[in-house]
Input
Amino acid sequence: MKSVRIISALLLAAFYVCQAVPAAAVSPENLVHVHTGALSLVLEAEQGSPLRFMYFGDRLCDSDVQALPLSGSPLLDAYPAYGMNCPSEAALSVVHADGNMTAVLLVEGVSVEQEAEAVLTRVSLKDPVYPFEVDVCYRAWNDSEMIETWTEIRNMGKKPVHLTRFDSAFLPVRRGDVWISHLYGSWANEGIVACEPLKPGIKTIRNKDGVRNSHTAHAEVMISLDGRPEENSGDVIGAALCYSGNYELRFDTDDSEWHRFFAGINPDASEYVLEPKETFVTPAMALTYSREGLSGVSRNFHSWARNHMLAHGNQERKILLNSWEGVYFNITEQGMDDMMGDIASMGGELFVMDDGWFGDKYPRNVDNSSLGDWTVDADKLPGGISGLVEDAGKHGVGFGIWIEPEMTNTVSELYEQHPEWVLKPALREPVVGRGGTQLVLDLSNPEVQDFVFGVVDRLMTEHPEIEYVKWDANMAIMNHGSQYLPGNRQSHMYIEYHRGFASVCDRIRAKYPDLVIQACASGGGRANYGVLPWFDEFWVSDNTDALQRVYMQWGTSYFFPAIAMASHISAAPNHQTFRTIPLKYRIDVAMSGRLGMEIQPKNMTDEEKELCRKAIAEYKEIRPVVQFGDIYRLVSPYDGFNVASLMYCSQDKSHAVFYWWKLEHFCNEHLPRVKMAGLDPDRLYRVHELNRIDNTALPFEGQAFSGRYLMSTGLEIPYRHTVDYHKQNDWSSRVLYLVAE
Ligand code: DGJ
Output
């Protein structure tokens, strides 16, 4: 009897210690098949055993699901916890009240719930020794190829449990020739593509800004399973952590057959004390998969974003003029009125007044004061916002306004009244940001949350005509310290900041569901699926240089649809790079996203204004295709062919827009002929060039070609424009509109 007990104890120990076990013994009733129309995720959930991952990828038929245990693939822990297999990376690690640092999670039950637009599968796990539970959740969308997964971690005991790591998800990826594509960069250079093979060791992608999270790296990644990533072929997994704060994505390639992918909130300086009966809900990781390469994964993300993750994702966006690069802080009533008139005369639909309109005791003339004092500067705007709203109405355009409500300056009335509202450690002077005076407000404090909500609420109550808010955030958390949280909860600061932010955004959306809100954060600092449900779009970058935008918008389009990417025509020379790019090229790039203008129209010639008028009119025609269409990236700017090209096709393939941008200019150059994609091979498409500047029409102007020909051979795009000698320059770009007969 004793020896039986010893053997079973040894077996049990081996069971906990080995993460990979043979799958042949799995009984079919323990299989959990989470699926969308085209995706399958299969788990084994046997009561009293760890939850095991079996498969993620293309949709499996029932018989393949049943046969999976015999496919030779081992089972891997689906949510590995630290302690009983120490050498391996874990998704969760805890310290119980008695100091025990282990967690064992065994299946307790599985529930499946039909939601309005998705199916939610919840696998409940329980520690057999400690009153500690984890639900691993999977939401499979009915109309999108996306499965979201997250965990809900519950302390059922009487004493707090410390969470030292709390990933949202773990995904094993079979080794082979696996590459990852992810986005990195910095201010004014966001969304740059990095593409690399996974090698032994740990590859970490992470952010610690505190407020924004997508300048230097992105919380999304593509995983190409069969070699170097291709745009339109190859098997690719796409993953996005839907979180607005600090995150960490890890690929651990150890001595096994697997790359182990973990994603979650960055645990650095963020140990979380889980109180008795408290549940910690991790942000979701969204997972998709396509056999049509990177672009296929992008299309899955884009349609899911438009349908579920983006405010008003199915409504066309207005064409706007934003005042920033036109006047910077030099806001005047007359200046705003002129700009409204100008954008209206070019066919635009909205005007947005940027920074510089506020501050009473401390007028905001440069970037070193006034944040928090959201009262109009009556010297600059004697008629107030009411006057501007009236002007906008007179010009027939909507009105939008800039705010940066999470911030203050040491030079502000707000800071004078509430120095206790800023993030800073006790006993220390705070480190300051922009302008040498900027500070971040402490959103963990409910009073601060009320204040931030009140900034929008007051504007909207007093001026319900405001259609659009540009919500900026220009500082990282540089001071670890909340004056609101108690001393023993300072490690909650980052997490509570984003809970506070979420609660404010929820309140704003509940009261102002129709308001259009842009997430701007020193440019593209808030391009993430954590904030998008509250926001309509984001500012891709403070860099409006059209050439650099080709690269940045290319990368950003991996995960985010054109409708969310604010893309503006700006001045030449460009204010960030000082590059002089002709207007035609600037327009052709801006028209591949949510078109807008960021320029002083007063400084434009009549000819330039006319070109913009024409472009705006043509954009209105193609807007549904660009904003709701499927993306096909054709030639990458990163591949060194000196050309970049992509296209959008309407869902029914009746309309398409093709973009072609030359990146460098040489005599006797040789560029590839670009094959199109996404068309119906059996339909004829009539081709029409938009934004044409050439004296002579393209040879194929007005001609019809089959989708088959356009996709197998493509059109020969001339390398140069045929314009008068004095108008010649070293730039070339084309936009073609294809309409099916
Ligand atoms: C940073 C933003 O990204 C810019 O577009 C502009 O709004 C400035 N802030 C204003 O201070």
Q: What stands out?
A: The pocket of DGJ is lined by residues 324, 354-355, 367, 402, 472, 474, 520, 522-523, 539, 542 (CB under 6 Å). The mean pLDDT is 96. The chain is about 20% helix and 30% strand.
